[in-house]
Amino acid sequence: MRGILRMTLLSAALLGACGAAMAEDWQLAKDEDGVKVYLSSVPGSKYKAYRGVVDIKADVASINALQEDVKGSCKWIHACAEMRLLKSEGDNSWTYSKIDMPWPVTGRDVVIHVTTEKTADGGLIRHLQAEPTYIPEEKGEIRVPKLVGEWKLVPKGTGVTEVTYQVQTEPGGSIPSWLANSFVVDAPMNTLKGLRAAAEKR
């Protein structure tokens, strides 16, 4: 569970909006190599929410196990600079991540409360919610103030899982429009491609 937590907060940690229920007008932004990325405007935010969807030739248990590999997960999570588990209590975990930002943009970090839910079909949903005051802010980083999202793993027949990664966030501080526009596509696209490549090698 730790890996998925981190991957969520990592990619999640950058752009989007705030309030999953508020982003419903999803428009296909990119369809590449089996990964589809959708974007949605969110009322009151200048950042778009993103949703990535991909089918992976691996079962839910295998993907879940892969995502629990904390050290290994940072290799395939988009913009991953650092990630660690702060606390775990049953189905609840708190994670900390740092996000790489291109110079001269100040780096971001994020604390996310992850709640894991098992579904009746044998799948998993991990609900993500930023808790920016959970630990003190670190010098040289801008703490992401708002983030909401989820990871959803849905079994789709023998050895196939549909993975959906959705995030809305306010990144804090100032983000150039070119970076915001690219990140909301690159984060789900690259993260899901990386997860699929790692899972299908197993």
UniProtKB/TrEMBL annotation:
Gene Ontology cellular-component terms listed: cytoplasm
Signal peptide: 1-23
InterPro entries reported in the protein's UniProt record: START-like_dom_sf (IPR023393), START_dom_prot (IPR028347), START_lipid-bd_dom (IPR002913), START_lipid_transfer (IPR051213)
Protein name in the entry: START domain-containing protein
GO molecular function, one term: lipid binding
SUPFAM superfamilies associated with the record: Bet v1-like
Domain called START: residue spans: 24-202
Keyword check for Signal: yes
Alphabetical list of Pfam families matching this protein: START
UniProt KW Signal keyword: yes
Keywords: Signal
